[in-house]
Design goal:
Blueprint lengths: L3 E8 L3 E3 L12 H11 L4 E5 H8 L2 H4 L7 H12 L1 E5 L11 E4 L3 H10 L5 E4 L2 H9 L5 E7 L7 E2 L10 E8 L5 E7 L3
Parallel strand pairs: 1-6, 1-7, 3-4, 3-6, 4-5
Antiparallel strand pairs: 2-8, 7-10, 9-10
Helix pairs in contact: 1-4
């Protein structure tokens, strides 16, 4: 069975964005880009909420073709254009969307069907609202967090309205020279 892994940058106090969705506090550099690029290159499915998908779709399809594109831009653009994308949205339709499927209803059933299909892990990128929905339905199998050395004090939390405890097992950690710490957790399903 495929697993859904939530990939997020997070502040030390648990926020994934500032109060107005700002993410200018997130530290990324070539070391992190290279590390993340290796891991996601093994993935064949990306899961997004509508807002994050639209942000990605407005940037990644063509950025690798620009004359000033970085190594990361070229590699990630190529990956993004080839990966199967799943979007959780009640307002979007699949018309004219390349490599993209929309899930708008029956979330538990549709996600569990997706997990049963052949393929590698499903990476849930950003998308706090989608993540909150999947957490409530106990559909996330792991968390791949990049803890940034900052305390925001307020913003959009990664974990909110949690009904029951979620027990985790740390499977990997890594410190980057920027001060960001990678923490990978597996959810202990019962």
């Amino acid at each position: 069975m495929r697993k859904i892994i939530s990939f997020m940058h997070i502040s030390l106090d648990g926020f994934v964005a500032g109060p107005n969705g700002e993410m200018n506090w997130i530290k990324v550099d070539e070391e992190i880009f290279d590390h993340v690029g290796k891991r996601i290159s093994e993935g064949d499915t990306a899961l997004y909420g509508r807002v994050t998908y639209q942000m990605m779709e407005n940037y990644w399809p063509t950025v690798g073709d620009k004359p000033n594109a970085s190594k990361h831009d070229i590699e990630h653009s190529k990956w993004y254009n080839n990966v199967q994308k799943i979007v959780l949205s009640k307002t979007m339709t699949e018309e004219d969307l390349r490599n993209t499927k929309i899930i708008s209803d029956n979330l538990p059933e549709r996600i569990n069907d997706l997990k049963q299909q052949a393929g590698n892990e499903i990476l849930l990128f950003g998308s706090p609202t989608a993540t909150h929905s999947l957490i409530q339905l106990n559909l996330i199998d792991g968390y791949w967090l990049f803890v940034n050395p900052i305390i925001l004090g307020r913003g959009i939390p990664l974990f909110e309205n949690i009904k029951d405890k979620i027990k985790l097992t740390l499977s990997n950690s890594r410190q980057f020279t920027s001060g960001v710490t990678e923490l990978s957790y597996t959810v202990n399903k019962q």
